[in-house]
Structures are given as C-alpha cells and as structure tokens.
Design a protein that fits this description.
By secondary structure, this protein is of the alpha/beta class. The protein is built from ten helices and five strands, in the order E-H-E-H-E-H-E-H-E-H-H-H-H-H-H. The protein has a five-stranded parallel sheet with strand order 2-1-3-4-5, with helices on both faces. Strand 4, helix 4 and strand 5 form a beta-alpha-beta unit. This is Response regulator transcription factor. Keywords: DNA-binding, Phosphoprotein, Transcription, Transcription regulation.
Length: 216
C-alpha cells in the first residue's frame, strides 16, 4: 500500500482529493492536514510514502513545508498548484519536491502521479516536464549556483542519464534511448543523485539544463 498524507487548506478540495485517492486499491490516505505546520507534524508522526502538498497554505506555506519534509527524509512530496508555471512551483522544486500537479488534474492522472512518485520516479509527463524545466532554467531573476565541477564525479554513462533527465525523459524512455535495462537506469539515477547531493530527479533535470548536459 502507498500511504499518502493530503495537505490542503480548502476542506472541499481536500475532501475531493481524499475521495479520489481512496478509490485506488493500492493507496491509503494516512492523514489530512489543513496547513503547512500540521503537514510537517503529521509527516513526522505518520511517515507516509507521499505527501500531496498544496503550495498556498496558512501558518506555513507549502514550499517551506516541503523543504522541511524533504530535508528530514520524511516522505516524497508531490505539490499541488492552481497555476502550472508560477514561482510557488519553482520554489517547491528547489525545496526538493518530486513533482507537481495542477488542481484540475483528472482523477486517474492524480492516482498515476502518486504511484509514480512513490516509485521514486518524480514527474513523468515529458511535455510538462520539459516545459517546466525550460521555464525554470530560463528565469532571469534566478541566480544559478551550479558549478560544472560537480559533474566530475559522474561516469560517462551517468552523465548521459543526467542529460536524458534534463530532457524530461522517464526511466523507460532513458532505457530505450541509451539501450539499457530500465532497472539499470534506476541504478544510475540513484547513484548520480547521491553523487550530486540532490533529493529528486527533477532537481537533477534542472541541473542538467543549467549546465548544458546533453543525453546521447
């Protein structure tokens, strides 16, 4: 079972999300939070697999809550937003969120996204991912602290995988592109995240964009 904590301040929206998630046989709603502080507290108490986190909440915003949840290794975070490319989304990804969804996402897509994040794969819709990453990397006000030297620890294959992540490719897509088993791709992703000190493949994708790393 995938245990999910739903953090959303609007009770009607939260109830709808819970209803959708409970319709999936492999998903359990472990708890509900109405603000960011409660989300962090419940994540510490319940240790869910995934936190479905609204970015705009009282007491503690979703970005700050995401940063705490990820920093403490409590769960993977899937952020919810009304707008597909706003500063809240960028802030949440910088904080280590595994991906994001729009609040008007179809029920089946929400369930699929939760399953994907629970598997450690982050955002998987290539078109959305590429657009998000491109917008993120192009933000003129964003001061890049990326140092090309961080790539020195990566093997040639890991650099190729990193480049593919920068294009928004899923593990299956990377496997096909680089002619390797999907399980091997997962291993490379895990290793490169560890070497680069990153929390999610989305952060890796942004780094690839910033440093111009290309997939094969």
């Amino acid at each position: 079972m995938i245990r999910v904590l739903v953090a959303e301040d609007q009770s009607a929206v939260r109830a709808g999300l819970v209803l959708i998630l409970r319709s999936a046989p492999d998903i359990e709603v472990a708890g509900e939070a109405a603000d960011g502080e409660q989300a962090v507290a419940l994540a510490r108490e319940l240790r869910p697999d995934v936190v479905l986190m609204d970015v705009q909440m009282p007491r503690l915003d979703g970005v700050s809550a995401t940063r705490q949840v990820v920093a403490e290794g409590l769960a993977d975070v899937l952020v919810l937003t009304t707008f597909d490319l706003d500063e809240y989304v960028f802030g949440a990804l910088r904080a280590g969120a595994s991906g994001f969804l729009l609040k008007n996402t179809e029920a089946k897509e929400l369930i699929a996204a939760v399953r994907t994040v629970a598997r450690g794969e982050g955002i998987v819709a290539p078109a959305v991912t590429r657009r998000l990453i491109a917008e993120f990397a192009a933000k003129p006000a964003r001061a890049s602290t990326a140092d090309p030297a961080v790539l020195d620890s990566l093997t040639r294959r890991e650099r190729e995988v990193l480049g593919c992540l920068g294009e928004g490719l899923s593990n299956a897509d990377v496997a096909e592109r680089l002619d390797m088993a999907e399980a091997t791709v997962k291993t490379h992703v895990s290793r490169l995240l560890g070497k680069l000190g990153l929390r999610s493949r989305v952060q890796a994708a942004v780094l690839a964009q910033e440093l111009g790393v290309q997939g094969s």
